[in-house]
Structures are given as C-alpha cells and as structure tokens.
Amino acid sequence: MSTADLPYVLAVVGAGPRGVGVLERLGANAAELLGGRRLVVHLVDPFPAGAGRVWRYEQSPLLRMNSMPEDVTVFTDETVRIDGPIRPGPSLIEWARLVRSGGLDTRIDDSLRAELEALRSDHFPTRRLQSAYLAWFHRKVRAELPAGIEVVEHRTRAVRLEDGEPQSLWLEGRAEPLEVDAVLFTVGHLDAEPDEREAALADFAVRHDLAYYPAGYTADVDYSAIGAGETVLVRGFGLAFVDLMLLLTEGRGGRFEEQACGGLKYHPSGAEPVLHVGSRRGVPYHAKIGYRLRGKPVRLPKFFDACAIGRLCAAPGRIDFRRDVWPLISKEIAWAYYSELFTAHPERVRMDFAVFADAFADAAPGELDALVTRAVPAPDDRLDLDRLDRPMAGKDFGTAEEYGKELREYVEADLSRRADPEYSADLGAFTALLSVMGQLPALVRTGRLDAVSQLSDLDGWFLGFFSCFASGPPPRRLEELLALQEAGLVSFLGAETRVSADEERGVFVASGASFPGETEARTLVEARLPEPSVTRASDVLLRRLHAGGALGEETVLDPVTGDRLLAGRIHTRVSDGRMLDGAGRPHPRRFALGPHTSARSAGAFTRPRTNALPFRQNDIVAREILRMIT
C-alpha cells in the first residue's frame, strides 16, 4: 500500500473551542487542499469536546461569562481576512433564539431551559449555557466534515510524545501509543507549579499551620477548608477574585436581594469568611459596558497598523514599548474615543469633527492634550488613560474606612458610567483596544522589541491594563461586591498591596500604599491565573517535551547584558504556529495555538464582525496542516 493510500493522522491535544475551531477550518479548507487523501483527527482532552475545561457544564451555576451573548461567536464572517472560505453561523444570542423557536434541534439540559428562555442580548450568560453552545458547535462541525475527514475522540490526557516517522503520542490509560503524523496543541492557559516566591509562602504556611492557595483557575480550586468567619487575605482584584467572591458567599448559601431604592442587600448564611482584597491598582476591573456605539463607525486600526509597525522596525535600535509603541496605541485609543464622542454627542464638543480629525491626525503626542482641551470643554468627557489605569495613584487616606468609602464611590461611578449611553465614547476606546490586540502579534514577530520592555511593559503592564479596562466583570458582580462590603464580608487593602510572611508572628501580613495599618490573617489566596511558564507547567506532556529539549520556552534577548530572558510561553513561530524546540528550530509537524504561545492570542471565541485574530490563526494552521498532507 502506498503512502497516498494511508490516512494522514493528526492529533489535536486540547479539544476545547480552540481545538474544535481548527477542526472547523480543516473541514472548510478540505475541498481546496485535501485532495483525495483521507485525514484522521484524534481529539484528546479529559474534558468534553467543544466546551473543554473552562466552559464545561460541570461547574458552579453561579459562574458567568463576562461577555454578552450578542458579543460571542465561534463562526467566521465577512470581516475575517483569511485565505480559506467563510462559514458563517449564529452568535450565542442568535443560537439561543433559534433553539427557542424550534429552528435548531439540539439537546439542552433541563437545568438550562429557564435561562435559555429568558436570555436577552444584553444579559451575561452562565458558563453552563456557553457550554451548551460550544457543545452544539462541536456536533455541527463534526456533522458537516467532508467524507475524507474522520474524527476520533479520547476523553483522557496526552502524557508523552516521541518523535519519529510517525510520531508516537501516549495517552493516559492506554497501553499503546497513537501513531500520528502531526500534532497540534490547543491547551489554553497553562497551569503551573508554584514559582519561587509562591513556594516560599507555601513552605511558610506549612511551618506555621496556615493556609496558602497559589495562583490557579478558581473554579478548580477546593476552598472548602476556609472556615466561616475566617479572615482571608486575597491578592488580586480581577475576574478570578470575582469568581472567588461568589463561591465563598452566595456559593455557601447566602443570597442577594434587590432593594426598592436600587442596589443589592446581602443576607449571609453564616458560612462565609471575611475577605480582605487588594492589588496594585487597589480597585476592581471596570464593569463591562452595557450599551452600543451611537456615532459614525470608524475603521480601525488607523494609527497602530501594519505601516506604523513597519516604520517602527525601520528605525535603528531596539523598540521600547513605553517610549515607541505606547504613543501609537494611546493615539489609536483616543482616536476611536473622540470619534464616537464627536459623532454621537456633538452637543458636548466645540469644534467641527472634520477639523478636529485633521488636527488630531497631524498632532504629535505632546500636542494632543492642548487640542482636546480646546475641543472638549468638560473634563469628564476627556480621555485620561493614566487615571483609568491607576485611579488611586497618589491618593492618601487616613484609615481603611476612608479608603473603603472612596472605593465604593469609585465603583458606583463606574457602574453608572458603563450603563449610560451618554458615555458611549468609552465603548469607542474599547473597540480600539480590541484592534490593538489584533496587531500585537505582528509587532512581537519582528523580534525588535527590547527584551525587558516586552516582558514588563507589553506582557506585564499593557496586558494588565487591557484586562482592567476591557475585560472586566458583568455590572451585577460589582453591585454584589458593594453589597458584600456593606454586609462586612469584604474589605479593601488599598493600592500597591504588599503581603509578607511574618516569621515572628507566624501569620500573613498585608498592607498597602493607600492608608496606614496592617491586616493579619492565617489564610492567603492568590486570586489570579498562573503566569505562563513552560518550565513550571503542570501538564506532564509539556514538561517532558521541555525537559528533553523538544519544546522551547520563548525567550527574549537582553541586548545590554546578552542574557536570554524567559518569557514563559510555548515558543512558536508566530507566522504559522509551528512549535520551536530548545534551540529555536521549528518542528515541521508540531503546532501550538493559544494565549500562552508566542502569538499571545486572545480567547478561542470572539465578538462578531471584528476580523478576529483567533479565526485568522486557526485558518493559517489548518491550511498548513492540509498542505503537508498532499
């Protein structure tokens, strides 16, 4: 039998929405590229295919998405610039409407029926309902694959991969390996063993009979040992904290009640601990915006596009993110913000938009403030990115109570602003940030970013700013935060929170820059996902590949010292997703996609009609794999 008569075998390790998204692209591109060859795809994941780990049905019904259903799709549309065919399909809200009307014959768990029937475009669905959408997407993709593609699913983990012709992929609980021609890793965020700092805190906790919870995916961490009334220090004020807050309060039998005068009141069950939360900003992420753009649409990117990146790279010397890139990004954000303000709310500006736009385009970074001051009379209508990023910076309070009052007013103002379409310019800034995220892989691919700047400014500060401004919780979650503060179950540690292990007292001690004083506790929770780290990856397969030199950890060169600095991510060639080994050489038949790869791509699904980067990456990798077959 000739090679052409044998099927080509691909293993996809990680069968969540990203893995199934690539499977969809394989099917879509097969007519052009597969020829007469057969393709067998092994989907390997211990969690259900389609939903995967994060979106699986088997998790608390309290946990919700931080996206509205009209902003969630797994389908390409006319805006996506790819070489493969466009295969449109329903967004989450369109899918829900089709199911309700009988237009789709699909299985829905009885526990989801009430939510499905009540779902509106501006709701924030449970992750369980998203699981049903993703499971349906998986079934649809499989049903529509061409006859030449076969899929085999394995509800287990991949534990070892050996090179060869073909490669041998060993699965947990299986005596013989899968013989595969190519492997694609779509493993999402990497779980990681504690780093040196976390390990020291864990050791301190053991020696003093304390409790320490290192960074991890909140829904998978067992917090049952945290007792009722216990003082708990929480480091992290983002989405992981929001999940933790709900699981330790409403998840323990408490309930929130709508007040006639507005807001919520929390009725404790008595099983709740007392959470003291802090972070560098000292404030929670901004609430998700609840309205739509009202002005004239703008085409993005405008100032941070391929041409701008090309000009950056043509200049001599290394690129510093703060000095060279941030001015372009901030101008992109400001352009989208003021375009919406001028076209949706012209009564609040005193300059013709065409005149403003021309002056804005020509203005140097130092000239923009003066232009905005002339054109926008109300300070509240002017974009202040520094204040958005660090709202409590430089503010001193006499007591924790004073700080708590200020933070409460800050959250109430944020909730009001993000519910009021009069501030739709904020949504303009949000759309610009999404556009910027789509351009960043091209900048990273050039290799011109200064190493320290890439790690601290891009991967650290900027991605944190993006999450805080654009990827916050549903507004209801911040209302619940305020209710829990009022009930005495949540208090705030301030900005620049520091936690130390006090050997003399044998406790964890937290303090901040916002007010004097300390808070002691016997329990400390890191409310965040682990930083990317191939070296410390919990995944057995990835750790083995890295230890053997077959998988490289992305590094960046420090031109001053000549040192290679670890970026933590799976090292991939950004242009086609091929995995690089420890020496930086691409493997011809191994690929990886996801947020913890060199491409730094966002979630596996995205907003409709945004030329989403994950869809473009999926198409590129699928076409690369199909070309290898023929």
Short key terms for the protein model shown above:
630 residues, alpha/beta, FAD/NAD(P)-binding domain, 3 domains, 6-stranded mixed sheet, 5-stranded parallel sheet, 17 helices
Q: How far is the first residue's CA from the last residue's CA?
A: 16 Å
Structural class: alpha/beta
Largest sheet report: 6 strands, mixed
Number of domains: 3
Rounded Rg: 25 Å
Q: Average pLDDT value? A: 94
| CATH fold label of the largest domain | FAD/NAD(P)-binding domain
| Share in β-strands | 15-25%
Q: What is the tally of helical segments?
A: 17
CATH architectural arrangement of the largest domain? 3-Layer(bba) Sandwich
Helix proportion range? 25-40%
Low-confidence runs of at least 5 consecutive residues: none
Number of strands: 21
Shape: globular
So what's the CATH class of the largest domain?
A: Alpha Beta
Largest sheet, spatial ordering of strands: 3-2-1-7-21-20
Organism: Amycolatopsis coloradensis
Protein name: FAD/NAD(P)-binding protein
